[in-house]
Amino acid sequence: MFKYDKEQEIYDIAGVKLGGQPGQLPTVLFGSIFYYGHDIVKDAKKGEFDKEKAQQLIKTAEELSDQTGNPLILDVCCSWSGTFEKLIDFVANNSDNPFAIDGTTAKIKMTGARYAKDVGLSSRIVYNSIMPDANKDEIAVIKESEIETAILLSLNTTKPTLAGRMEVMDDLLSISREAGITKPIVDTTVIDKPDIGPISKVIHMVKEKYGIPTGAGVHNAVARWAEMSDLSPKKQFLASAVANSFPIAFGADFLLYGPIDQSEEAFFTSSLADAYVAFNARQEFRLRPLTNEHPLMKIFRT
């Protein structure tokens, strides 16, 4: 494995620690809820959903987080600006965890950011996400919202390579500073089905150069592959297991694992990968986990 020469930032996001050297902290897992096509959503335009099922999904994810030691951040997805208030209120009232505001357009995300500020939730929010083409209006709204944490999406559509992702990093960090973001975290951006390899390498490269927490939306790669292939449920599970664990071996600090319905698989595979990385860090670098709640202790009691 490896230890970075660059000092690694560790952020505290409403009680969730994120970042550091590989093996120091558990991977933070983002689970998406109310996303497009989520079966608990009855009417996306009206913001109607099955509250009982939503509560159970959140409860299950939180229990898995407690069992494994991997912190949970809920990714609250919204398709209509007029419904974001309902979704934010529900999550804020049913979980003490930080959560991300995630919309299908910048306008929708801006609506969520404004509302979070109005109801005093800015410190619990992760803005998902700032893109290289963010406009002045979005930047201004983020700054006014007093949100401290944002995901920076290293999307380079003209050069979707390792080098291309790295080329947009300086601009992304400049935009995030302009938006008042003091805790930037980087999503190395899945574009194509086999992208788990490249995004994992870029995670390593970003941490090596900038020392800031980095991860990826790994579910996107598996979902796109599954849509175009006749994968059995077992093969989809195995594909997700590889997608969740591979980036952790390259230093990932967080993963967006996709639907909250898949929490059991995501927490199990990620926690096991975390334990392996931490055990190596302890033997090779005498680097111990910074928390007794690390998966290494939770799983192997060592």
In short:
The chain has 302 residues and is α/β, with parallel strands linked by helices. The chain has helices spanning 51-68, 84-94, 106-118, 136-145, 162-167, 169-178, 196-210, 219-228, 233-249, 263-285, 295-300; strands at residues 10-13, 16-19, 28-33, 41-43, 48-49, 72-78, 99-103, 125-130, 149-153, 183-187, 214-216, 254-259.
Structure write-up:
The chain is α/β, with parallel strands linked by helices and 302 residues long. It has a single domain (10-296), classed as Dihydropteroate synthase-like (TIM Barrel, Alpha-Beta Barrel), CATH 3.20.20.20. It contains 11 helices and 12 strands. The protein has helices at residues 51-68, 84-94, 106-118, 136-145, 162-167, 169-178, 196-210, 219-228, 233-249, 263-285, 295-300; strands at residues 10-13, 16-19, 28-33, 41-43, 48-49, 72-78, 99-103, 125-130, 149-153, 183-187, 214-216, 254-259. The strands form 3 sheets. The chain has an 8-stranded parallel barrel, surrounded by 7 helices. Strands 1-2 form a two-stranded antiparallel ribbon. Strands 4-5 form a two-stranded antiparallel ribbon. Strand 10, helix 7 (196-210) and strand 11 form a beta-alpha-beta unit. Helix 3 runs parallel beside helix 4 (136-145). The longest helix is centred in the C-terminal third of the chain and has 23 residues, at 263-285.
